[in-house]
Amino acid sequence: MIAVDLPYWAQSLLRVLGGTVAVLLPAGTIVYLFLFKMMSFMQSRLGPMEAGPYGSMQLFAEVGKWLQKEDIQPERADKKIFKIAPLIVLVSTFILVAVVPFGPDAFFTDFEAGVFYFLAVSSVSVLGILIAGWSSANKYSLLGGLRAAGQLIAYELPMVLAVVGVVIQAGSMNMQQIVFAQNHGSIFGWDGLGNPYVLTQFVGFGVFMIAVQAELTQTPFDMPIAESELVSGYMTEYSGFRFLIFFIAEFANVGIFALIASVLFLGGWGVPFSWFGWDSMDAVDDWMNIVGPLIMIGKMLALSFLIMWVRFSYPRLREDQLQRFAWKVLIPVSLVNIMLTAILKVAF
Amino acid sequence: MTDLIDRQKLSYIAAQAADARLNVELETEGMTLNIGPQHPATHGTLRIIVRLDGEQVVWADPSAGYMHRGYEKLTEVRTFPQVTTLINRIDWLGSFANEVPFILAAEQLMDIEAPPRAQWIRTILFELSRIANVSLFLGDLGVQLGAITPVFMAFRDREYVLNLIEGATGGRFHPNFDRIGGLKDDLPKGWIDETRQVMKKLRNFCDEIENLLFGNKIFQDRTRGIGVIPPAVAQQYGLSGANLRASGVDWDLRRDQKIALAYDKVDFKVWTHPDGDSFARCWIRLQETREATKIVDQLLDGIPSGPVMAKVPRIIKVPEGEAWVSTENPLGEMGYYVVSQGDLGPFRVKIRTASFNNISIVPWVLRGVYVPDVITILASLYFILGDIDK
User: Fold this and answer.
1) Among residues A231, A233, A279, B358, which one has the fewest Cβ atoms lying within 10 Å of its Cβ?
2) In terms of DSSP H, where are the helices of chain B?
3) Range of the domain at A189
4) Contacts of residue A312 in chain B, CB cutoff 8 Å?
């Protein structure tokens, strides 16, 4: 454990700064690396090249552009709610990052029911999206908002059920305990790799990633935005910095969900503890507080690459096909997965 | 044609009927959604008024005319050679194909025939503009369904074809190359070899699109069984081109009529599909792009030598008479009914464009589908706004 004793205000300041970095850094990285560059390379073009070396300052140029734009509100919009909606979506991103551990001591809060909290809080953004769609006084926005509500609620369930397998296996809902259980575990007595749950819970991992794709409204499931049908769905009437907030929240959410998936299934910030002979949480060396976040960023990039790759390749499902997929495929599969996990947990 | 008030009345009645039928228990009301004139799915300024029950369309009415440019009237104050500049802009993705039927009609009136080499080059350019047109459709299809990558491949490979058209005619988009009695110029040196290579690239492009899009499970789920048009209905609404062939009607003006183009010299298959759904329409277009590359290859092998321009007087005066010539354009049957009174310019030109008839089926085919399928069906019917509004 780090033996530093900071006053309360310094701790709070550090947490706020850390939270801002943890939300904005993944968002910026994902937008530049994947949305600007990887998508361009997949589509035989170069992407932004002018702003900064290799277009790396493009994001700042874009942010500057959005900030300069006029703040347009539809005349018949419900003004107060219209203004609050993007903030709710962004805040839900910030409160999600609170439970993600980045190292043995590098966490915002070590919450006993971390998984439960994350599952509960991840649906707050639905509220923002729904009221954004409703308050815009636009039929396209309304359709988009209603689609989003239906979709996000439907995919909440497979996500919860996929995580239940992990919780059963780890025997805890604490994110730190789940990381510990994965890195301290062993596969049939061999502990060279620890026991990342992607190996045992691969069904859960698949269901979780599909549900994440739907929660994030990325392409096979992007009907709430559906730019060729609904113009831009619930965001249609938003412009300028309000749109910017939606935009940041969208890609920050990709980062946060990738972080959570890496905690739940890929071993989180840890390296297999057997490499260094750690056998409890307290034995972990302090330098993991520096290396841990880097490992997390690496895993986050790998998983968000997966999410974006699917986004750039697939066409969009229809609303009823999406619901059918959730209720007839994902939920039964994850229920069977839970049952098998429980049986095997008791057996071994 | 009903005027706006009638249309609104009709819409109200239809909406009332639908509401009564569908929502007896819930007592919800329907919603009228105005898709367009500015909407990403209409690639242009087509307006479609749809009456929705939830996300289900109970009633739809396309409203064209937001881009009307009055070509039929404008042709009356121009001389015959000047008209090609105008009609290039009707279907702007396959421009050269617009010129051919008009020039053929004028030639028919003047009773001259272009030399064989000119006819062959015309046919080659005609098929190239078909490829340029339809390859963009194949990419755009993905965008309409939410897959953003294919469109860039389409733009990349369409560029090769546009380069060829530019190489031969000097105009990338609007060649204005066809003349009464032949063509403006002969082909440039090295053009034929380059065309052969480009045709290979385009066949690769077709394979790529087929793998990326047509083989995709989601794409098939979204298009199969959606927007089915039975053959009888297709014929009643005057559909033509790939939309008609996708309903199983074996009808292709390239094969079925005798005109002064080199189609009778080549061997090609007219594809039909029994299903008549969105997938069939897209698939037919894919196959036709492949077939067009084969047609171009065959024409390049057997291109005759000789002049590209017949003996035509300096000042073109078309004798009195009427002529109707239509060809199988990228979008379907396109025809010109030209009336001449012996002047420098036409007295009256009636332009029959394919897209205008193709979207007339929209109210029939959109009834009862969901909003996402509206977009798929519109995309698969494939219209160009310039071709609707003229």
Assistant:
1) A279
2) 4-22, 71-74, 80-87, 95-110, 116-144, 150-169, 191-209, 217-223, 231-236, 242-245, 253-256, 278-301, 354-358, 362-365, 371-381, 385-389
3) 8-347
4) 148-149
In chain A, the number of structural domains is: 1
Cis amide bond preceding B37, omega within 30: yes
Q: Report the C-alpha gap between A141 and A237 in whole angstroms.
A: 8
Judging contacts by C-beta atoms under 8 Å, the chain B residues touching residue A223 are 372
Q: Which of B325, B261, B255 is nearest to B288 (CA)?
A: B255
> Which pLDDT score is estimated for B190?
87
* pLDDT lower than 70: segments of chain A: 1-4
- Domain assignment present for A240: yes
Q: Tokens 């850094």 — which residue?
A: A25
B366 contacts B228 by C-beta, under 8 angstroms: no
- In this structure, what CATH number is given to the domain that contains residue B316? 1.10.645.10
Interchain contact A309–B (C-beta under 8 A) = no
Task: Please tell me whether residue A165 adopts helix, strand or coil conformation.
Answer: helix
Rounded average pLDDT over B123-152: 87
Which single residue is written with the structure tokens 């009888």? B232
CB contact under 8 A, B147 and A321: no
d(CA B310, CA B106): 14
Q: What is the pLDDT of residues B295-350, one digit of tens each?
A: 999 998 888 888 888 888 888 888 888 999 999 888 888 889 999 888 888 888 99
